[in-house]
């Protein structure tokens, strides 16, 4: 699922930007919901889900402790 979402974890991606996190969250919500762009009556729920996933992603990345030498970037 969501094979084209790139790895955002350091050291693979140094200091991921908010735009990268939002793009990954948007892609995830699109995949899970089955909607590329939601209808007007689903827009609020869709946008709230994107923000919740983005927040959870930022929290996760901020909490991770990465050990070892940096490795080359690999898309997962």
UniProtKB/TrEMBL annotation:
A UniProt-annotated Pfam family: DUF2277
InterPro entries: DUF2277
The protein, known as: DUF2277 domain-containing protein
Species annotation: Streptacidiphilus fuscans
């Amino acid at each position: 699922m969501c094979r084209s979402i790139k790895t955002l974890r350091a050291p693979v991606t140094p200091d991921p930007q908010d735009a990268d996190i939002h793009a990954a969250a948007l892609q995830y919500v699109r995949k899970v919901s089955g909607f590329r762009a939601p209808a007007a009556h689903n827009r609020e729920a869709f946008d709230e889900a994107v923000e919740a996933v983005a927040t959870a992603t930022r929290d996760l990345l901020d909490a991770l402790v990465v050990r070892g030498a940096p490795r080359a970037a690999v898309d997962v």
